[in-house]
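BUG-222 | component: ligand-complex export | severity: low

The export step for cytidine-5'-monophosphate jobs runs without errors, but we want the raw record kept on the ticket for reference. Input record follows.
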Amino acid sequence: MADQIFAIIMAAGSGTRMGAGTPKQFLPLGGVPILQRTIERFREALPQARIVTVLPREHFQTWKDLCTLHHLDCPQQLVAGGITRFHSVRNALEAVPDGAIVFIHDGVRPLASVSFLRRLADQARSQRALVPVVPLTDTIVTDSGEGVDRSRLRAVQTPQVFRSEDIRAAYRLAYETSFTDDASVARRKGIPLSYVEGERYNLKITTPEDLRLAEALCSLAQ
Ligand code: C5P
């Protein structure tokens, strides 16, 4: 029998860099909340996946109202986030049983393609932990202007994919500020990571410019 897939969609950040009153995951992208677009991509790519949506507890009702307004009626388990992304993921993993494959994805990356998500699900059958990365194209320097060899650097994306027992064990580690994504936690736990090809368009919407760029990419795809 195929392993059960869980998609944990992280949306418990406050999104202060966007400068809007509304958390960025609720802002519209082509008229539909960013978070809804992210969830719909998963529904299309992996309809069997169980969706766990992680939100600030005070925004559960905001999100339920948006789902009603925009007709998103797929089953979702809502989990309250924590003080950092690490604590939010740790809370969400309590909703996941052993023996599952877990995708952990930023709710503000709505442009991950259907084929990319399916490729990850295929690769997860034979590899223990998947971390999508893309090469850097800009010249990179330190804050003092010193050049850095970019050929050895990669930008890390989500979704990152794990076996549930592995990632739950990793998230029992004590929090460290260097834990900025799930792979950094898994690596500290000694879980072997496979770096796989990410997608250039799999933007993390962080600033108003990112949102405009995402709007442009969406309209190109139509
Ligand atoms: O803060 P950062 O940009 O790294 O956030 C990445 C993702 O993690 C976002 O989708 C955000 O909503 C989520 N997050 C969270 N809980 C937090 C902080 C961030 O779910 N406490």
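Assignee comment: Attached the raw record above. The helical segments are 34-45, 60-69, 85-93, 114-123, 164-170, 182-188, 208-221.
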